[in-house]
Structures
1.
Amino acid sequence: MRESEIAENIKKYSDIDSCPVRNVVARFSGKWSMLVLCLLSENAATRFSAIGKAVPDISPKVLTETLRSLEAAGLINRHQYGGIPPRVEYSLTDLGRSLMPHINGLIGWAAEHFDAITSR
């Protein structure tokens, strides 16, 4: 590869405003985000407490932050029902569902290479 090609490839990641990794992928690539998205893709509307039980090593505060971030990115819906106590359910948006085939591809790769990665 020529130096000019390398410089051009590097440039696309250094442009803060138009870099897809910085501006799109970073919104769902947090430690818990993909796990929450996978959980919601396999279940219809899911309550906060059920997500917390499915991912027992996430604190309620971090789960709340993760859900808010995914909602702000347009990947999940939050629906609050009236009543006492109030009930809140989360589900994927159409945008979130369109992301899942790509995440599932990554999950397949991770499963295939799990031993090679974790044994290092």
Note: The chain has a mean pLDDT of 90.
2.
Amino acid sequence: MKGFIGEFKEFINRGNVMDMAVGIIIGAAFTAIVTSLVDHIITPLIYLVTGGNGTDVAGLRIPVGSDQYIDFGAFLGAIINFLIIALCVFLIVKAFNKMKDGAVHLPGRRGEKTIEHAPVCPFCKEEVNVGATRCNHCTADLPTPAEATIEVVK
């Protein structure tokens, strides 16, 4: 039982879990903002365009009983809500990836320069191609796919 608790503490203390928790909290707050945008701005515009009176959307709400109805306007609002959130998440991920990829290739601050060195086989010390899993000189299996190294020079 003590091993399980120790593993759980290790899992919780990882940086990724904390980042994920912050992301979920920010995502929930952002979802509330987008839902308000859709419910209070976009949906009334849909009502206006379709000829509704502000509570019923003409042609988008079909009664199915005394208190029941099929509300295509609410469904349309949910689709718009999803598309706005998906677009924002896409833009955030795209910006993060661009920032992450660009940070490796940009020179450092205060006059520092980065030099990219080709990967080297750990066995024969010969240069190998990036991503190679086997050395083309000594034919040894590389422990991990070859990656270039970045050196920061002042």
Note: The mean pLDDT is 78.
3.
Amino acid sequence: MSTLLGPDEVGQLAPSGYYIALRIGFAFPMEEINAYPEEWVNHYTNQRFMLFDPVVRWAYSNVGSCRWSEIPLEDPKRIVAQAQTFGMRYGVTISVFDGGKDAQRSFASFTRGDREYTDLEIKLLKVYLTRRHGETAPPTNLTKAELEALGMVKDGKRLKEIAFELSVSEGAVKQRLKNAKLKLGAKTGTQAATLANQYGLI
């Protein structure tokens, strides 16, 4: 098996479902992939398990990996046991966190019904999550002028207004937005402003 997993290989390693939350901000992840069984998602949501889930609590307070069978936290609502009845008998949770002032966390849980995850599989899944965490990191090469223009786009200002407020030509504003779109991988100025806002850059 390649050391660089793709979504297909992840699906093969987690045949009974997985969940990935990338770059969790104050409350919500920047990107979320929920491939758990639909019946479990509905049950989990209806029972409001999120606040009591030992797997989630572990992911928020640790870095590294832990098999569900080894999570050292209480589970008064028996969430892990209930997950087993939905085919998710064995699971592993992985959490990564980058240091620094604006540090963000990503975590993922992978499940299968037949056996525990091997150390090698856990290592491969950790490499996958770490790579995805890195890929969704905010760009660090946006200039102050580009961020200023994006902030004004976010506030709903038009090109003419932005140019007037910044005392530059409309062409200069267009160039700043063009550069920002390129750096953020956005198609439009509005999309670039939304992304920059999600990253906490503006």
Note: The CA atoms of residues 12 and 112 lie 9 Å apart.
